[in-house]
Write a structure and sequence with these properties.
By secondary structure, the chain is mostly helical. Helix content is 57%, strand content 0%.
């Protein structure tokens, strides 16, 4: 058994043309194209969900932020009037 040759393709196309008619073939092709497009987008969406799920499994758990003592401030020199008590 071999693959489908050019003569078989022509015969299949002629049978489809006779069964459905010339006006229905574009409608059928559009419906088939929409179906293929939806199938591709659904498989792409599933692949994206699986990769996101895999990434979240690989990442180490994040440590919650610690709210302890604030970072030390740099000491600023006092203004000249405040050093002696303001007099």
């Amino acid at each position: 058994m071999g693959s489908i040759g050019p003569m078989e393709l022509v015969l299949i196309f002629l049978v489809i043309l006779l069964v459905f008619g010339a006006k229905r073939i574009p409608e059928i092709a559009q419906g088939l194209g929409r179906g293929i497009r939806e199938f591709k987008s659904a498989t792409r969406e599933i692949q994206n969900e699986m990769t996101v799920d895999d990434r979240s499994r690989r990442l180490p758990p994040q440590q919650p932020p610690t709210y302890g003592t604030p970072a030390p401030r740099e000491s600023q020199p006092a203004e000249p009037g405040q050093a002696n008590g303001g007099a």
